[in-house]
Structures are given as C-alpha cells and as structure tokens.
Amino acid sequence: MARLRHVLLALSGVLLLVMVLYNSEVGFYEYSEANESTRYKLLFAEFASGGCSSTAINTDLAADRMSDCIAPLGTYAATDFTLAAFALFAIAAAPALALSEEGGVKLSRDMAKLLARMRLLLGVVLSLTGVADALGMLTGDGSQLDWGAVFGLPLPSLLVDVLLIGLGAHAIRKSLRRLKSIGEAPDRFAEPWERQGGSSQWKGSIERRKKEGGPPTVGDLRASLKLDEYEDIFQIGTSSELDSMRVGRKCHYCSGQGCQMCNFTGELD
User: Using CA atoms, how far apart are residues 151 and 111, in angstroms rounded to an integer?
Assistant: First the structure.
C-alpha cells in the first residue's frame, strides 16, 4: 500500500506538469469559426470560478475576439508556475519518501546537519514573512499582500499568513529536534568491547587468566588449546644432540621466563 501511494504521488505530479505544459503550448480550448479552428490556453483560475462555460467563451470571442477565460498560446501566468512547482515537488518527494521509509537514505553527519540548518532557515523565513505580512510591513500603505495575484488563485491574505506561520513553526520544530538528535549521537558506532560494562565478555580465556607481569606466553596458549595431547613437531625440530648432555634445556615456549609447559622453571627436561 505504501508503494502504491508513492507511485500515485509521482504519477499525479507528472500528469499535473504535462497538463500545464500542454495547456500553455497546445491549448485545451478550441474555437471554430468559418471552417477554421483556433486553439487557446484555458485559464484555470477563471475556469474554477464557474463562469467560463463553452457558450460564454464562444459569445465573447464572436463579439470581441477575446475572453477573460482564455489566453493566447505560449503565455505563462502565476497559476502555471504554482502548479508546475507543486508537480515538481510531488515528483521529487515520491522517491525520497519511499527511500526514507525503507531506510535506504543514508546521510553523513555533516550533511544531516546542513540539511537541518537549511530547514531551520527556511522555517524562520516563512514565519517572519507571515508575521510581517500580517502586520502590514511588506507594503508601503500598511496593507497585506495580494496573494491572489502572486499565486494566480483567489486566496485570502489572512489564510496565507496563517499557513506561512504554521509551516515555518513546523519546520523550525523539526529542524531543532533533528539538530538535537545529531548532537547527542556518537561520532561513530562503538565496538562491542568499547561499550560500558561489556568489555569483559569479549575477552578470551587467556586474557581472563593473564597473570601480572606481561602478556600470556606460548605455553599458556598451548595449554589453553589443549595441544599437549598431540606431538609437538616444533619442539622436536629444535632439539639437538647436545641436549642429551644437559639436565634441562631452555624452554622455547616462554624463552626461559617460566610457563605451564616447564612448570615455571624455564627449562624442559
């Protein structure tokens, strides 16, 4: 279901973008007169108001050769740019949301900080814009901006200001929460033996039984692995004829330091 939602979001963005381009370059409305047809761009804002029927448009064209509901091809208005922006946002957001839900988006710590700070800046700008317009600080006469002329849609100025302040506050809250989580996270993943209280369980038997004074010897390793049950080829190869003339020889397991193999005498019989 989640994948279907993302696919539908991307498809809706593509269809909306194609609709805007087709309407501006080819035209949705066709006017026929004297066996000649002319295509016009349909104004979505006027069409949404409900006063742009086919009969009204034809009447205006027949009388004045122009109508408030249509425009020549190749012209772009604020409404077209707004719809195109929403379409591009939907196209870009669909794969990003899909990857984030599946855990496929991996960002470095510095990149995550940068994105969080950019979101924080965007939230501050949106909130300040909404507050400044509500107070009449963006115009010379102290009135609010005509957002209908900006977006090409009949939008109340108070509603736009509230939306800007709300979106800005939401972006600021999420960015601050993200920056806090990044700051509290460790620089890297701790290894098992570096974790508090868990280092002893990752030590081997030799490390646990290591005596003071240095690391375990080869004899300790041999005894822990129970290699005494097998013939030591290395020990046989190090023996010489002179060894028979001696009571004992230097233990090659510990280099004469003393280990379990020589009963801590430093010599082998």
Answer: 33
CA distance linking residue 39 with residue 52, whole number of Å = 16
- Residues sharing a CB contact under 8 Å with residue 3, sequence separation 6 or more, in sequence order: 98
Residue 28 lies in a domain: no
The 10 Å CB-count burial string (b at 16+, else e) for 84-94 is beebeebbeeb
Judge if 257 and 221 occupy the same domain.
Answer: yes
Instruction: Over range 179-200, report the average pLDDT.
Output: 60
Highest mean pLDDT among 187-191, 198-202, 265-269 belongs to 265-269
Q: Do 175 and 120 contact (CB within 8 A), yes or no? A: yes
Lowest mean pLDDT among 80-94, 115-129, 235-249: 235-249
Domain hosting 224: range is 204-268
Better-predicted residue by pLDDT, 200 or 123? 123
Same-domain pairing of 212 and 262: yes
Can you tell me the distance from the alpha carbon of 64 to that of 31, in angstroms, rounded to the nearest whole number? Answer: 14
Number of domains in the chain: 2
